[in-house]
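Quick one:
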Amino acid sequence: MSTDSELKRSIRILRTWPARLGARFHCNSLPGKSPLHRELPKHLGTATMWMGFGHIVRTAASVAQILVLSRILQPADFGIVAVCAPIVAFIALFQDPGLGQAAIQKEHLTSGEASLLFWIDIGIGLVLGVILMGAAPAVGAFYEDKRITSYLMATCITFVVAGGGVQHEALLAREMRFDILAVNTAISGILGLVAAVVAGLYDFSYWSLYIGSFVTTFFYVVGLWSFSKWRPGWPKKTTSANWFMSFGMNLTGFNVVNFFARNLDGLLVGRYWGLIELGHYDRANRLLLAPLTQVMAPLYKVMIPVLSRLNSQPDRYRDVYIRTLAAALILILPGIAFATATSDVLIAAVLGPRWDYAAQIFSVLGIAGLLQAMNNPAGWLFITQGRTKEFFRWGLVSSLLVVAAFFVGLRYGGIGVAVAYVVAEYIKTPLLWMYVGRRGPVRTLDIASAVGPLQLAAHLSLAATWLVHFCLPSVAALLFSLVTCVVTFFAIVIAFPRTRRLTADIIFNSWSDRPRVIHW
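Output:
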């Protein structure tokens, strides 16, 4: 009797197996009852730590790849990649024209809409690949090196592969699967490192660097497809197609103008003041941006889907945004203030005594870094509220102001450009928050009340640390300078009742998912 039952059960499983297989590997519907069916994580800090883990592992793998291959390859091999890098970086701006963020931001996303976006991303990857393939011979001829042509042509494949994972990544982000995204990022980075080192040992020369990059991208996309249950169907036109394209084009427009504004300073300094001046300026700029990127990049990945799903709950939206921004600033600002005030000693310890001029430039750019840490997350508001047209307009105005500042300061070299950039940042900051806060859940007054005291604390702690370091400029006194910076910062923060309550809430009850509202 039991044998007959087991036989019938086996036959039933065999009959339903094809349907199960199709549902698992050819699913045309979005997972769950709704793409936003998962609850908001009870601990946003945990989600951010997951994304930070993935980002740090991939960054460490990239650094390790450079260090190991530097002992295997010739400098000319790295030179080939360095020539191609800015060209590839510029074309990559159009890789995902904001469609991934659009899929995350849209409150109700259908499988048909996701499929349409998927095929658009694939098409864009193909178009970009063809453009790069057409430009490759010209670039190779300009540098009189056919290896550059070959490298750029091979890179075309990467664009097509990357386009196949944009929507799967967006859907996993909508489901708040940050742990999966982080692990996938880390594993793909490690696999890219292994592939690059093995290729280098087998004397693949500059192709080792390409192989490492391609393997990282390929396995990242494979991981996205493996973890996501959704599979695209054939593209069909939807009524929301125009909205998606408008959202994406405006976001891409901002990225393009911001790209030029961010890179023009180095181009101008190198063109008019030479490579030595540019070397000092570039090192100072990169040392400042590195810690900001390490904190803000994981936060961006988390906050875009989280805030997008809170659009219908303005009080919670405001609460989550302000507490996240405040927590990030409490973490970042004392470090920037300390590094800026003691840059002469710190830069010499990191880069060596030959970089004194870079330390001077860093001490200026660090002042702008205090504002950058606050201003960069303003983009979260534009994107998650669907205001990418306003974001693009702000990008145009901001970029024109920064470019004008670069030309004004250029006559004084790298230090002059840095001073001009700081002035431009102080002019931009109030304009930015008045513009972004004129509508939406987060108003200008909310930011002024929550973040204003933190900025005041950062600037005063910078001044106090600089004064202590000026009086005690030795390496042994660095610890005393650090204590001065931290104590001054938090003494001013807790002096304001609003930021004292906010700081206590972050420390003792941070990231709870209860419907708490902070009233200013």
